[in-house]
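Retro notes, structure queue

What went well: the backlog is down to a handful. What didn't: a couple of records were mislabeled last round, so from now on we paste the full input next to the output in the thread. Example, using Ogr/Delta-like zinc finger family protein from Serratia aquatilis:
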Amino acid sequence: MIIMYPCPMCNSLIKTRSSRTLSEYVKEKYYYCSNPACLCVFKTYECFEHFITTTIDPTITANADIQVSVPQPPTQPKRRYSMRLE
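Corresponding output:
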């Protein structure tokens, strides 16, 4: 996954210089600006905040065969059209 956002000084594209894991849920990343006139260097912290969704059963492994029933949208009745040739 590539997260790109502009340089905070000149709005040019930035590139990742290095990163390191500080804890299980926190990464420290160093970036530099690709604009030769700017060359701003800065760091960010990337962290886990909270789940949006979770698994049905946390004991299920990734290779397990999961069968979840997804409700189907209602279907419209088929309309029959006839053409009269004269």
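Agreed that this is the format going forward. Reviewer comment attached to the example: The mean pLDDT is 79.
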